[in-house]
């Protein structure tokens, strides 16, 4: 790696550490969630946060937008939300001379960090309105294409599918999310700290540590980070072994999984292991980074068959079995 790049990378690592500290001061007891969400942004992708209501998912996104210096917008997804409520629409206007023309009114998707709150409460038609935006950073309305600001990221929150009034996200949209981040209940000590920090007379507000230009440059630097051949092969082995039709996949997985992760999963892992290394102040990713990110990257890109679901098979156990088999083979 070029010495100038190394120097710039060292400075970036220090600022990322400051940003992480600032976020964790306001999102108490969710250090792993914060790390994964920051990794998604540094990789230039989108993340899906899954957890019960009231666990701080919305607060996390708001805090990250402020600390990372991004212009953020929020959309509360509801069953009656329409695609135009997200993308915008063309309205007919009349000038002083009587001439009529259409003017495009931008929707809330035109921002740098979009919080899609409770995304699975909207209908599949409305959910699909984000597909082009998430993949191509542009939207098409009435035959015209409009570019979104740079950078553009979607952090969506999702309630568990078992709750009433939720719709499962289409597979094509799930694949657009770089990773799925599970938000669990905080530990008792952390919950006590949350109580004291959020119910006092004055609640501290987050401050900006980075700018949008800093984030764009960080994304560029992370793509320059070298990845060892052993890590590349590990990523390929992991993703391919999670496909039921691959010869390398274990027999229990072949029997249980209907479909497995595609090439986007390998791309996501390749970017995220670099981002995780950068957050840890390292110049290259390691095998531990692949293991740590296997579940967030793969779990939403795999589907259990009906029989496996009826038998209580868990995707997490299948992914663990693949990782264990890879370690034994090594």
Task: Characterize the structure shown.
By secondary structure, the protein is an alpha/beta fold. The chain folds into two domains: 1-197 and 208-224, 3-Layer(aba) Sandwich (Rossmann fold); 226-330, Magnesium chelatase subunit I, C-Terminal domain (Helicase, Ruva Protein, domain 3). Helices cover 48% and strands 15% of the residues. The protein is built from 15 helices and eleven strands. The chain has helices at residues 3-26, 31-42, 57-67, 83-87, 124-127, 131-136, 171-174, 188-198, 212-224, 229-241, 251-256, 263-279, 287-298, 306-310, 315-329; strands spanning 47-50, 72-76, 88-94, 100-106, 113-117, 138-141, 144-147, 153-158, 179-182, 257-259, 303-304. The strands form four sheets. Strands 2-5-8-1-9 form a five-stranded parallel sheet. The protein starts with a helix and ends with a helix. The model has no long low-confidence stretch (mean pLDDT 88).
């Amino acid at each position: 790696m070029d010495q100038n790049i190394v120097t710039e990378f060292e400075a970036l690592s220090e600022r990322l550490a400051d940003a992480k500290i600032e976020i964790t001061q306001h999102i108490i007891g969710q250090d792993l969630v914060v790390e994964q969400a920051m990794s998604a942004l540094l990789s230039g992708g989108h993340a899906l946060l899954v957890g019960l209501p009231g666990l701080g998912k919305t607060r996390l996104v708001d805090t990250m937008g402020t600390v990372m210096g991004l212009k953020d917008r929020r959309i509360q997804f509801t069953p009656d939300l329409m695609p135009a409520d997200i993308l915008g629409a063309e309205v007919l206007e009349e000038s002083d001379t009587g001439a009529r023309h259409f003017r495009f009114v931008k929707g809330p998707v035109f921002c740098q960090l979009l919080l899609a709150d409770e995304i699975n409460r909207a209908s599949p038609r409305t959910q699909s309105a984000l597909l082009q935006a998430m993949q191509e950073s542009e939207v098409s309305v009435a035959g015209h294409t409009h570019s979104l600001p740079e950078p553009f990221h979607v952090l969506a929150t999702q309630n568990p599918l078992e709750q009433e009034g939720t719709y499962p996200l289409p597979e094509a949209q799930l694949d657009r999310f770089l990773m799925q981040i599970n938000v669990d209940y905080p530990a008792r000590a952390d919950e006590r700290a949350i109580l004291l920090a959020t119910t006092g007379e004055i609640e501290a507000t987050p401050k900006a540590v980075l700018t949008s230009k800093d984030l764009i440059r960080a994304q560029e630097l992370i793509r320059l980070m070298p990845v060892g051949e052993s890590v590349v092969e590990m990523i390929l082995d992991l993703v391919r072994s999670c496909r039921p039709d691959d010869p390398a996949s274990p027999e229990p997985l072949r029997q249980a999984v209907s479909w497995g992760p595609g090439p986007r999963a390998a791309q996501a892992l390749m970017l995220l292991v670099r981002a995780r290394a950068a957050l840890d102040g390292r110049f290259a990713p390691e095998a531990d980074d692949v293991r740590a990110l296997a579940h967030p990257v793969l779990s939403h890109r795999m589907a259990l068959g009906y029989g496996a679901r009826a038998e209580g098979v868990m995707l997490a156990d299948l992914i663990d079995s693949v990782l264990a088999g890879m370690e034994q083979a090594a």
